[in-house]
Amino acid sequence: xxxxxxxxxxxxxxxxxxxxxxxxxxxxxxxxxxxxxxxxxxxxxxxxxxxxxxxxxxxxxxxxxxxxxxxxxxxxxxxxxxxxxxxxxxxxxxxxxxxxxxxxxxxxxxxxxxxxxxxxxxxxxxxxxxxxxxxxxxxxxxxxxxxxxxxxxxxxxxxxxxxxxxxxxxxxxxxxxxxxxxxxxxxxxxxxxxxxxxxxxxxxxxxxxxxxxxxxxxxxxxxxxxxxxxxxxxxxxxxxxxxxxxxxxxxxxxxxxxxxxxxxxxxxxxxxxxxxxxxxxxxxxxxxxxxxxxxxxxxxxxxxxxxxxxxxxxxxxxxxxxxxxxxxxxxxxxxxxxxxxxxxxxxxxxxxxxxxxxxxxxxxxxxxxxxxxxxxxxxxxxxxxxxxxxxxxxxxxxxxxxx
Amino acid sequence: xxxxxxxxxxxxxxxxxxxxxxxxxxxxxxxxxxxxxxxxxxxxxxxxxxxxxxxxxxxxxxxxxxxxxxxxxxxxxxxxxxxxxxxxxxxxxxxxxxxxxxxxxxxxxxxxxxxxxxxxxxxxxxxxxxxxxxxxxxxxxxxxxxxxxxxxxxxxxxxxxxxxxxxxxxxxxxxxxxxxxxxxxxxxxxxxxxxxxxxxxxxxxxxxxxxxxxxxxxxxxxxxxxxxxxxxxxxxxxxxxxxxxxxxxxxxxxxxxxxxxxxxxxxxxxxxxxxxxxxxxxxxxxxxxxxxxxxxxxxxxxxxxxxxxxxxxxxxxxxxxxxxxxxxxxxxxxxxxxxxxxxxxxxxxxxxxxxxxxxxxxxxxxxxxxxxxxxxxxxxxxxxxxxxxxxxxxxxxxxxxxx
Lengths: 403, 403
Hints:
Two copies of one chain form a homodimer.
Chain A: H1 4-9, E1 42-43, H2 58-68, H3 70-73, H4 81-95, E2 105-108, H5 110-122, E3 128-133, H6 137-145, E4 149-154, H7 168-176, E5 181-185, H8 197-210, E6 213-217, E7 243-247, E8 261-265, H9 267-280, H10 286-289, H11 302-323, E9 336-337, H12 348-359, E10 361-362, E11 364-365, E12 376-379, H13 384-400
Parallel strand pairs in A: 1-10, 3-4, 3-5, 5-6, 6-7
Antiparallel strand pairs in A: 2-8, 7-8, 9-12, 11-12
Helix pairs in contact in A: 5-6, 5-9, 7-8, 11-13
């Protein structure tokens, strides 16, 4: 059994999004080619909530909760019952399958909180957990902290197909080899691919065949681009206990500063998540929970406009990467893009540091998401013209440091 | 190795404070003696933030943070650097030993979050952890979730001495038997005792002798009653890496609805706590962190007045319990009181349910804190006259159901 110290070696956060401020610049003069590029710093490690501001009414909902006092400060660990009841209705309508307000919902501190609690509720030491590669970096780390065994399932996201490209034969093998938990993000983080209806149905069939519980992280599923379709796993006729779905208003709605997430589905899992929340953080901050009242209740046209603005940035960035010979999959939803770099004369960590100090662009290295040392992830929820300028610099840097 | 399901059986929250709303009333007519008592419901499971309202300026600090936008929404995982720097100064002054603002502080979602992260950073499966009995119920549960082994160290809080009554011989035995982590709350939750200078120095000496890391939960240490003295473990000359101190503005300052805690001390532990926070909840909600600016900066006289008001309630409740022959230790700090019940003709869980339904008083059973089936815990941070009325009912109920 690994000691506490061994476990933490696997949980390094130095390259995690938002932690760049803790890295030293080191001596880069030795590596640097050419001059520092002019331009304003763009932090692509997360969305810019000053460029895309929070949903209207959020701060008012918070202030009303403060006025309400103790009733809202101390909610059940799983969150205020009236807020969960309203959410259950909206989430059932959005996902196309019923949500039990009392037994099947829990409000968490961000979707990160929901992911940790869901895996904490499902994974014991030694348990195999199927994890897509590439996928959100914390998925693997949470399983490692719980001393489970992440078993990778590759996704061929640069294949010719319009599908996500998950290797369904491999998924079957991993389930057959004993994995009873499968965790995946849809749209995929970092690539922005959306799983096809065929892929989601295949996942549902395999989950039933092998008695697997699926944790579906659908954080970005509302930010779906024009003409794309999205299939909700939980609406594929699976037994209720087989799926936990995770969503939250932090990304598309720019409400990250409130740390709110929700998990819904399998009552027995939600029940264990609440027991775990009781010792991990007690509850999502009481007043903050009230901000969920604004979710799925945005003003007419607000979400459509937000999608349109993101799609325009996406299209411009894709054009720049492709014109610069950095092959890039088209994101169908969300605000991540995952361009492929040429072979570089420097290591990926050094290139990422050079991008920051020479080109004023903060990106997340592909190695955070799996064995993807030839890619970087950008969150393009940014000021449109700043994002274009910084992307031009990134493309120029890729050529400057190409082997 | 226990499965995920076995572990959760140990984490039952049905009797945890605030979860009473999820209990059914069941059929109590079979058990009930006498009539339902008139009176307004008092929820002693936690403080009443409507009776003792949050620190002035909290909501304004929050609103300013929302105005500040992205800078405050996405902080480092360990919390905004400027907020931690200001806190480090205040906490060094309060505890009497230096605090490193960068290496030695982390802001967490409540002190609950800090406790979980500290133990998560220190405890591997099979590790022995010394835990005081009685002490905060989550301490034992967190160790169990981490598959560590809680080893009890009794505290004779009803002894004749003015000291807390921790069994220091037993503590030495537990350290000698291999426990390398010791977790305790001071003031003790649920009894309100404060460890004497002699006891704290003995703990410090044992920690050095056996290379033990001590997690000191000092959540209530500011609410210290007239004439009492408090000894900060971290100011006893221990090496920096031996102590992590946990505090937060949730209780005394009634800021629970914001979910804020802080751990400070041992840099290597804080470092691992941050790595863990990255996968557990990312960070304390960004805007909420700004509320910490009001902490230790309350208006002149505000804290002294709050202490005076709590001391008056404490004294009245102690009088009522003692007049009613319910032996009770005098709390020296904090707002918990832990009276001893007579032998009852009903089980403690039934008595607690009867208190709620017949006497309109919600309390926490002593069994949450260790093998203390003869006690109940009350948080007396309540409206003064309501607390007195409800305490009279509790005393009457104890006599009504005495064997």
